[in-house]
Design a protein that fits this description.
Elements: H1 2-17, H2 31-41, H3 65-73, H4 93-103, H5 107-112, H6 118-125, H7 146-157, E1 161-167, E2 173-178, H8 189-194, E3 200-203, E4 208-211
Antiparallel strand pairs: 1-2, 3-4
């Protein structure tokens, strides 16, 4: 009887596992990989040659040093306060969102709202110009995954950018939202950097695959 019972239990366990496929863990993204993402969005990857950077831990030997060098020159990335960039560390969601907001030109708005991190969260969540559709559910302090990157990067492609609109009599820079409304020009990352060449961007952690 015990032998029959053991066989029945084994059969139940086998039946219970039929058709069950373990979900693959989502890949995370490093700080260097997302710096490359930003430079690709800005269509500046053609000048991102491997080179030494100002960061102690990013020499010309790092395969993504060129992207980090360009991103730093644009003011899109900062170090850790100790002269390092930590290129191979996983990037936090709030750090990636900050880089996207800067790429779209909204650093002045973010600074008015308190700078990093709060000001960038506010800018990214703005109903008119932000790319976060439901900011209350965003895990800002988690590591960025490739799935998150794909969603937010594709949304950011079509968000109106903030651009310079001259200077006032005191030499202060004037900015406008380039949304094509009330006489403003329409400018997005897709239009200004890629034209019609870019459809949906699929992020695989190493590069973008374009699907028109």
């Amino acid at each position: 009887m015990k032998k029959v019972l053991a066989m029945l239990i084994a059969m139940v366990m086998m039946i219970g596992t039929v058709g069950v496929v373990a979900e693959p863990a989502e890949e995370t993204v490093t700080r260097a990989e997302f710096a490359r993402t930003i430079i690709q969005l800005l269509a500046l990857d053609g000048i991102a040659f491997q080179t030494d950077t100002e960061f102690y831990d990013v020499s010309a030997e790092h395969p993504l040093s060129g992207y980090i060098f360009v991103a730093r020159g644009l003011g899109n990335i900062n170090g850790d306060g100790y002269g390092n960039f930590r290129p191979d560390d996983e990037i936090l969601v709030v750090e990636a969102i900050t880089m996207l907001v800067r790429a779209l030109g909204y650093t002045p708005v973010a600074n008015v709202n308190g700078g990093f991190p709060h000001g960038y969260k506010v800018s990214a969540a703005n109903e008119r110009t932000g790319f976060l559709s439901n900011p209350t559910t965003v895990p800002f302090n988690n590591f960025l995954t490739t799935n998150m990157a794909q969603i937010w990067v594709n949304r950011a492609l079509d968000m109106p950018m903030m651009i310079v609109d001259g200077w006032d009599v005191d030499g202060q820079t004037n900015f406008i939202i380039a949304d094509g409304i009330d006489g403003a020009p329409l400018q997005t990352l897709r239009l200004s950097a890629h034209g019609d060449e870019v459809g949906t961007l699929y992020f695989n952690g190493e590069n973008f695959i374009t699907l028109d």
